Automatic annotation (TrEMBL), chain A:
Its EC number is 4.2.1.20. Transmembrane segments: none annotated. The keyword Metal-binding does not apply. It is an enzyme of class 4 (lyase). Tetramer of two alpha and two beta chains. It holds the Pfam family Trp_syntA. This is Tryptophan synthase alpha chain.
From TrEMBL, chain B:
Tetramer of two alpha and two beta chains. The lineage of its organism: Bacteria, Pseudomonadati, Thermodesulfobacteriota, Desulfobulbia, Desulfobulbales. It comes from the Bacteria. This is Tryptophan synthase beta chain. Residues 52-378 form the Tryptophan synthase beta chain-like PALP domain. PROSITE patterns: TRP_SYNTHASE_BETA (PS00168). Its cofactor is pyridoxal 5'-phosphate. The gene is trpB. Belongs to the TrpB family.
Length: 254, 409
């Protein structure tokens, strides 16, 4: 089942879905395994797994550090695939890969699609690959049936959004504000008009991420977005309160 | 036809969506400026009154005699304001920032030269200025940090990654995606997403234009070879552009050989065998990376050459065999520096000295009726701490220990 269909179907029973983000290999794949188990048990609807990259340009300090430490402790792309295969087999929700383009480029872009397809990965989020540079990528995503998730930013015009939507499928990832991951977001008037622009430009479901960390944040998004994305906050919860706090944190969000 | 922003297979603009509009604006402003002869005129006027353009071309007679081969000519970018070619690019982008009506500039810096140049430009034009500098570079180039701060800039030490130039570039991008409306990112070299490589090369082309004219009038014909050090590649592109169409002029880029090409501790993306094609920091070029695509730690005695990537324009010229690449090791650099100081009374920056090393290796292969040209990208007296340290100079150490005691008291 393609992501869009899954999201629309799941949304029939829930007023908003949750997508969580984890950095593979941080602090270890064992920790990832337990965190994901708790996430799924507590009702997370989709999970994006970030394959660490040494130059995560669009990420903020917490995720940058997680990327760096994951690489320093020896996390390899190969292991990320093996781990992802285990997760998609164990859990009945869609998993996506998030990473930067160089990881695909070194792996071999087509091989990356092939292997991802084989292990049941449903979508890719590649923040440094605009459609202008992604000819091969977008062709392969159609060929292999893996959804390329397009990103909207508050600086995107409606015209640009429509153009981007033409390349994407599954859902749209709306970056809630300017800046990198990890800082708190103000859901102000500008945010409202931005989300209207997003809605007008596509019929795909909308996910909103960057700075979403609490039940209040998630509630604000009900009726505006289809998916709330929780990124940095879960890393902080694990760092500050330990792995066992993940489950109750997730269940507190909705 | 090649795609916009591509040089053969290299370049592009791998940027996050949030910067799309900003780049569109920048491209428009740059395309417009390129079309207006008045803009270039304003730029050269500024450079001849605020900096020292045209910079001289010096005939290094003693060195020429010493090697007994080609006549050695040195293009003196060290005589620019702030002591390096970096000023050319920075002042040019400053004029562009004025046109775009932005009020704040940010920049990455490795050696600190680009940071200092940007800070002077910001002071002159009345912009706010933030400079990102790897923590390791803050340590090795402390005097430049002092000057940037005194010039009114905020210097942010970058503690992520390898704490050098590439990490400073990432941090500058993170600032820019947060605050693009009134901020311009003054990229310091011919790297990064389009239009930066083209824009920086355009401003730096002033070096080659002058050098070509100067060598024709002083020596009477074109040089056989032109040497330039290559960090990101801006001074090299600057001087090479004066000779690209002269098929008989051989162009030689010299990268940081660090502790040797076999040591794994160097920054030679093209001269050695360790580089491979990749996409990072917004562009496609040859990077020093592992099989997974993770960037490696690089090493050079010269902070300004200590970088994982290289200009996509140079990678293309390398692939097309128009530019030949060589590497100079840290220790060869120290020897060439000492010789240049003793023979000519000229103190090249450690970065620039890499070009001297290769020129010295080749001068003897040519005869005295031929000339070679070295682009001296910057002056070395600003590197006094690094150079004194590399020479392991005893009286300097004594001085520092004494100063330390004085401050501690
Ligand atoms: C004096 C000097 N030369 C060369 C470089 C290397 O840069 P590029 O290769 O862009 O000229 C630097 C960079 O900081 C520098 O300060």
């Amino acid at each position: 089942m393609q992501l869009e269909e899954y999201i629309k179907k799941t949304r029939a029973d829930k007023n908003i879905l949750l997508m969580t983000h984890i950095v593979l290999g941080y602090t270890s794949l064992e920790v990832n395994r337990e965190v994901i188990r708790q996430m799924v048990e507590n009702g997370v609807d989709l999970i994006e797994m970030q394959i660490p990259f040494s130059e995560p340009m669009a990420d903020g300090p917490v995720i940058v550090k997680a990327n760096q430490e994951a690489i320093e402790t020896g996390t390899k792309v190969r292991q990320c695939f093996d781990f992802a295969a285990e997760m998609t087999a164990a859990h009945d929700i869609p998993f996506l890969f998030m990473t930067y383009y160089n990881i695909l480029y070194q792996y071999g872009v087509e091989q990356f699609f092939k292997d991802s397809k084989k292990i049941g990965i449903k979508g890719f989020i590649i923040p440094d690959l605009p459609p202008e540079e992604g000819e091969e990528f977008f062709r392969l995503s159609r060929e292999y049936g893996i959804d390329p998730i397009m990103i909207y930013a508050p600086t995107s015009t409606e015209e640009r959004m429509k153009y981007l939507a033409g390349y994407g499928s599954g859902f749209i990832y709306c970056v809630a504000r300017k800046g990198v991951t990890g800082k708190q977001t103000d859901f102000d008037k500008d945010f409202g008009s931005y989300m209207k622009r997003c809605r007008n430009s596509t019929t795909m479901p909308l996910a909103v991420g960057f700075g979403i960390s609490s039940r209040e944040d998630v509630e604000t998004l009900v009726g505006i977005a289809d998916i709330a994305v929780i990124g940095t906050k879960t890393i902080k919860v694990v760092e500050e309160e330990g792995i066992d706090a993940v489950g109750s944190f997730i269940s507190s969000l909705r | 036809m090649t795609k916009t922003g591509y040089y053969g297979n290299w370049g592009g603009a791998f940027i996050p969506e949030v910067l799309y509009e900003t780049f569109r604006e920048l491209n428009t402003a740059f395309e417009q400026a390129k079309k207006e002869p008045a803009f270039w005129q304003e730029y050269t006027d500024l450079m001849s009154t605020y900096s020292c353009r045209p910079t001289p071309l010096t005939h290094a007679e003693n060195l020429s005699r010493h090697f007994g081969g080609a006549q050695i000519y040195i293009k003196r970018e060290d005589l620019n304001h702030t002591g390096a070619h970096k000023a050319n690019n920075v002042m040019g982008q400053g004029l562009l920032v004025k046109r775009m009506g932005k009020k704040r500039v940010i920049a990455e810096t490795g050696a600190g030269q680009h940071g200092v140049a940007t800070a002077t430009m910001a002071a002159k034009f009345g912009f706010d200025c933030t400079i990102y500098m790897g923590e390791e570079d803050v340590m090795r180039q402390r005097p430049n940090v002092f000057w940037m701060e005194k010039l009114g800039a905020t210097v942010v030490p970058v503690t992520s990654g390898s704490k050098t130039l590439k990490d400073a570039i990432n941090e500058a991008f993170r600032d820019w995606v947060t605050d693009m409306d009134d901020t311009h990112y003054v990229m310091g070299t011919v790297c990064g997403p389009h239009p930066f490589p083209e824009m920086v090369a355009w401003f730096q082309s002033i070096i080659g234009m002058e050098a070509r004219k100067q060598i024709l009038s002083q020596f009477g014909s074109l040089p056989s070879r032109v040497f330039a050090c290559v960090g990101g590649g801006s001074n090299a592109m600057g001087v090479f552009q004066g000779f690209l169409d002269d098929a008989d002029v051989e162009l030689v880029g010299v990268e940081a050989g660090g502790k040797g090409l076999e040591s794994g501790q160097h920054a030679s993306r093209l001269a050695g065998k360790d580089g491979s094609a990749g996409v990072a920091q917004g562009y496609k070029t040859m990077f020093l990376q592992d099989g997974d695509g993770q960037m490696c730690d690089t090493h050079s005695v010269a902070a300004g050459l200590d970088y994982v990537g290289v200009s996509p324009i140079l990678t293309d010229l390398w692939e097309k065999r128009r530019v030949r690449f060589a590497a100079a090791t840290d220790s060869e650099v120290m020897d060439a520096l000492e010789l240049t100081m003793k023979k000519e009374g000229i103190i090249p920056a450690l970065e620039s000295t890499h070009a001297f090393v290769q020129a010295f290796k080749e001068a003897g292969q040519l005869n005295e009726k031929q000339a070679i040209l070295i682009n001296m990208s910057g002056r070395g007296d600003k590197d006094i701490f690094t150079i004194a340290n590399a020479f392991d100079d005893p009286s300097w150490k004594e001085f520092i220990i004494g100063k330390g005691a004085e401050y501690a008291a």
